[in-house]
Design brief:
The protein is mainly alpha-helical. 82% of the residues lie in helices and 0% in strands. Helix 1 (7-28) packs antiparallel against helix 2 and helix 2 runs antiparallel to helix 3. It is elongated, with a radius of gyration of 15 Å.
Amino acid sequence: MNTPLDLPSIIGLFGTACIIGAYAYLTLAKATNPFVLHGINLLGAGLLTISLIYHTNWASLVLEFFWASIALVGLVRAWRSRSGASP
């Protein structure tokens, strides 16, 4: 592999770190905050999407679309749950 480490690739690496970090958080934490979990996943998917726009890999781009969609659904559900729990 002789691909240069350009700015879009570095952005994608930060996205990868976010997703791996969120998974580690989910696995290792005794109790998770859904806003942190889904927010980090959404950020990671967004950063990876930026990278994939410059270095197109259609399968990965579709994966990131669904990853971001699931994270958005998780954030909406967490927000609704939080709003419903307030007096």
